[in-house]
Hints:
By secondary structure, the chain is an alpha/beta fold.
Amino acid sequence: MMSLSPSIGGIGSPYPWLSRELKSEERGLYLIHLLLTCANHVASGSLENANTTLEQISQLASPDGDTMQRIAAYFTEALADRILKTWPGLHRALNSTRIIMLSEEIMVQKYFFELFPFLKVAYILTNQAIVESMEGEKMVHIIDLNAAEPAQWIALLQVLSARPEGPPHLRITGIHQQKEVLDQMAHKLSEEAEKLDIPFQFNPVVSKLENLDFDKLRVKTGEALAISSILQLHSLLALDDESSSSRRKTPLLSRNSNGLHLQKVMLMNQSSSLGDLLEKDMVNGYTPSPDSTSSSSPASSNASLNVESFLNALWSLSPKVMARRFLQSYGCEGYKMREENGCVAICWQDRSLFSTTAWRARK
């Protein structure tokens, strides 16, 4: 284990790297160790130690430096933001005038989609699961909890257009905070559907997920329903006990008792929570068993009822084969897939970064 004691950099020095110039690899090792230490301090609530470690990291990190320096700079900002949330008033005040331009947000999402395979793999798995579960259905309704990227549904339209029995009437409800994003989505999907001669409707819902009004989803009895959640589950799981106890149970995750023909719920989320930042593999975190949920929440709680309303639907062979072939053709050997407890985990080397699961409602 690397020592960070003051004696390394001379008597009384808390920063051993100030006494000499570090090579890139050595500096990177220091940064990794410091980030792990800081994340543990933040997770345990040791804010004074976290503050000291952040000060040490700031001596080495740089948004204009090498790869590890840039990564550390962004992680430092995220860790500091997490600490500030301990004082909600201070956090809101400091962020009240921080405005992210819509064009910047769209550009970042576009780069993430184009440069990394994670979303593409999730789209392949999700679309194939939808196609299989909707076989023979004439009215299909998909609710997208993060309608930011039209590529997934354009690909689905193309697959549905080739169904032997003909395409269904497809309705997609897209949820996003920005109306402009939904407008772009509606235009691109409607254009593709018209080109493929598929009966199609797009229902835009401008809302934060936690403030979602169920009535705006326009769910109808008799239509086959699927819900897609890509990198959105954390926004519900991250709510603290006080706020979650005052919220009404999210209808999308409640027991399927309203005559809805809910076929599938597809989830993709990061495999680690911020509390386990940089260190712990949490592939099992989104496939809880009844034993694991009962130990952390009463049987009558909303969280327990929500989980018990669904059964894990194991991925069939076809979507897994398609996703694995895509990764193999991606041109980078570091990306891998593995299955564990009903999840398909998307990994870099042996570390799980994202996990995808499919769920079906209990009858």
